[in-house]
Amino acid sequence: MQITINGAPRQVPDGADLAAVLREHGVAERGVAVAVDGDVVPRADWSGTAVRPGAAVEVLTAVQGG
Amino acid sequence: MDDPLTIAGREFGSRLITGTGGAGNLAVLERALLASGTELTTVAMRRADAGGGTGLLDLLHRLGIEPLPNTAGCRTAAEAVRTAKLAREALGTSWVKLEVVADADTLLPDPVELLDAAEQLVDDGFVVLAYTNDDPVLALKLEDAGCAAVMPLGSPIGTGLGIRNPHNVEMITSRASVPIVLDAGIGTASEAAQAMELGCDAVLLATAVTRARDPERMAAAMRAGVEAGRLAFGSGRIPRRFWAQASSPEPDADG
Predict the structure, then answer these.
(1) How far apart are CA B66 and CA B110, in angstroms?
(2) Which spans in B47-197 are helix H?
(3) pTM of the predicted model, to two decimals?
(4) What stretches of chain B adopt beta strand conformation (E)?
(5) What is the ipTM of this complex?
């Protein structure tokens, strides 16, 4: 199925959960936060959270600013 | 700790809060942060590159400086609340510099969205430090909404125009019950000192240091400016007089 990660289209296996998608994408172990379709998903819930086709996954971290 | 800054029950020895934006690289930033003596510095939340590291967070951790996530770039309360929640998840802090700006030309806070976001975040348990206009009415409303600190601007972000309405800032500080942090517009050390003389509890600045020709040296200047202004504020300045008043004794009568 196709989803987007940080705006870029990605193919991921059908039925993959959020934890698998993020692992495949090489998301850092700490210092990041993830939102799916605009809702923040706590790290503890990554495993077992279903990802639907077309989902918009955002992975954010702290950068220089302010 | 002598004369600490206390925000939401937490004490800071330094009254200078910095931002990390604008520094050419992390090495320059590190030297500037160290020279500033800051204990709290802002970071922004943006998309993470795949496999990207967290060099900035590692640096702050190593220096013992607390990151203060901001909601820079947010135009609505909904965006700001979402960014604050992402920051809390990513950084494990419930502190947030709340910033909701109206347009790109002015980067001035949108007061309606700002107050709405502040109320929502306070309700959700956040420690909200609200970046706001130099408006004494709005400052009080933010305080009443439960903000831990209110942060009026001196002038628009990044302009270095200093404190354009010192009287407003003094009205804000004179009736505040939470810390007032002068945030945005500072260009040089005398303006940081002025903010403290107007009764501000702290100064937050970024561009003035990070985009100075010598960031490390300017950081040291800002630190000294904040300390000087704080000392002067508590020292009871002399009243302004129209005519001169000699400070030496009268000349001896001709003998």
Answers:
(1) 27
(2) 55-63, 77-91, 111-123, 136-144, 166-174, 189-197
(3) 0.91
(4) 5-7, 10-12, 16-19, 40-47, 66-69, 95-98, 127-132, 149-152, 181-183, 202-205
(5) 0.88
Q: Which tens digits make up the pLDDT trace of B163-188?
A: 999 999 999 999 999 999 999 999 99
What digits encode the pLDDT tens for the residues B42-80?
Answer: 999 998 875 555 689 999 999 999 999 999 999 999 999
- Is the Cβ of B59 closer than 8 Å to some Cβ of chain A? no
B47 in reach of chain A (CB within 8 A): yes
Tell me how far apart the terminal alpha carbons of chain A are, to the nearest angstrom.
Answer: 38
Q: B89 — alpha (psi -120 to 50), left (phi > 0) or beta?
A: alpha
B45 to A33: CB separation less than 8 angstroms, yes or no = yes
Which of B15, B43, B77, B97 does the annotation list as catalytic?
B97
Residue B97 falls in the annotated catalytic set: yes
The residues in B 71-90 lying below 8 A from A, measured between CB atoms, are 72, 82, 85-90
Q: Count of residues for chain B?
A: 255
B48/A6 Cβ within 8 A: yes
